[in-house]
Amino acid sequence: MLTRVAFVLGALLLFNAAYSTVQYRNFLKMAEKDQSGLPIDIVLQTLAAMVLATWAIVEYTAPFKNIHGSNERVRYDAVDNRPIFYSFQHRGALLFKKQ
Amino acid sequence: MAAPAAPGNAGNGAAEEVERFDATSMRFNTAVIGRIRTGAAVISGSTAGILGLTGLYGFGFYFVASLLLSLLLFVKAKRNVAAHFSSPSAITTDGLFDGLSTYVLLWTFMYGMVHVY
């Protein structure tokens, strides 16, 4: 839940930074200033939004599994258990039939 | 599947121990990393576009962002990479260029939206 909120917040911050950049460039055009580069607050907001959203993505996905040892262990007395070879049509039905 | 330990001398059995990994868990972890890399490429590509990076600066930014991602993956692996991956390169360089095309797509898209139009 926290990671979802963090991701939405990061995406909104990113969008807000993009919008601010567009407005800043429009202002530069209007004031007829020729200047490259962005104000430091927009740059910082963009980078912070990136870090937040990336963190949210990393933590939102499922946790890593341990690769040492199996998660579904077979007990020793079940090692030679093969359910697919079970047979129920054998001599027992005749031998132990009720007379 | 619990495989029996490799037979070795009783004296130095540990030295001849064969490393065994759970293939299902390894595939799972690789798939998780792939999904994360794609998402991170989308985010860092948008950032590069908004910042108005061009040329080699943009590509350099991708590798800086990948460095940050490796750090975050290290934290996600609970600072114990060996328990979750057969090699440390899994969180640093493996699949590094898989996200590059996604990155360039979002980079050029956001650059166009913000700085050109």
TrEMBL record, chain A:
InterPro entries recorded: MMgT
Gene Ontology terms for molecular function: inorganic cation transmembrane transporter activity
One Gene Ontology CC term in the entry: plasma membrane
Main location as per UniProt: endoplasmic reticulum
Chain segments annotated as transmembrane: 36-58
UniProt membrane topology term: Multi-pass membrane protein
Assembly and binders: Component of the ER membrane protein complex (EMC).
Family per similarity comment: Belongs to the membrane magnesium transporter (TC 1.A.67) family.
Official protein name in the record: Uncharacterized protein
TrEMBL record, chain B:
Membrane topology: Multi-pass membrane protein
GO cellular component terms given for this protein: EMC complex
Major subcellular location class: endoplasmic reticulum
GO biological-process terms attached to the record: autophagosome assembly; protein folding in endoplasmic reticulum
Organism superkingdom: Eukaryota
Keywords on record: Endoplasmic reticulum, Membrane, Transmembrane, Transmembrane helix
Positions of transmembrane segments: 56-75, 96-114
Subcellular compartments: Endoplasmic reticulum membrane
Chain coiled-coil ranges: none
Family to which this protein belongs: Belongs to the EMC6 family.
Name under which the protein is recorded: ER membrane protein complex subunit 6
Native source organism of the sequence: Capsaspora owczarzaki (strain ATCC 30864)
